[in-house]
Design brief:
By secondary structure, this protein is mostly helical. The chain has 4 helices and no strands. It has helices at about 20-45, 55-70, 85-100, 105-140. Helix 1 crosses helix 2 (about 55-70), helix 1 crosses helix 3 (about 85-100) and helix 2 crosses helix 4 (about 105-140). The longest helix is centred in the C-terminal third of the chain and has 34 residues, at about 105-140. The model has no long low-confidence stretch (mean pLDDT about 85).
Length: about 150
């Protein structure tokens, strides 16, 4: 009886490294969005003020999300073009799990955490998913067909 093996399948072939690639690409995206947020939050606060605080915050989130997404789209230069949209799906799943976890917290902590997660997480995930899937479908899906076999060994 063969035990669990981290690097090979039951038939002895090597496992796909796509899950590892998605994990590290997700960390890279998180760092890119965090750095973009740190660099742009003060200049945007000084430059853009509509007089309506929620609308100003929404505009700031959009600008930060679009800027971070533009930087993350550079990862389409990797050989496997499907990694970028798949990473955004993983980020959406992580955001959904975090939102579910917040509902089990105390009300004071929950409201603060919900505001923070939605403020810093929703725009990058929505804008990034939309942009990456549009680019992937328009530019790369004809050249490289998506196959479930590439991701079956998660």
């Amino acid at each position: 009886m063969q035990g669990l093996n981290l690097f090979t399948n039951r038939d002895g072939s090597r496992k796909s490294t796509n899950s590892l690639k998605l994990f590290f690409l997700g960390i890279a995206f998180f760092l890119i969005y965090s750095i973009t947020n740190m660099l742009l939050i003060d200049p945007l606060y000084q430059l853009i003020d509509t007089g309506n605080t929620p609308f100003t915050t929404f505009i700031h989130c959009l600008i930060i999300g679009i800027t971070g997404t533009a930087i993350c789209m550079l990862f389409f230069l990797l050989p496997d073009k499907s990694l970028v949209p798949m990473t955004y799906i993983c980020l959406a799943a992580v955001l959904a799990v975090i939102l579910l976890i917040t509902f089990f917290m105390e009300s004071e902590v929950r409201s603060s955490l919900l505001k923070m997660v939605l403020l810093f997480g929703a725009a990058p995930v929505v804008i990034g998913n939309a942009a990456s899937w549009i680019i992937y479908k328009m530019k790369f899906s004809r050249k490289e067909s998506y196959s479930y076999d590439n991701y079956r060994n998660f």
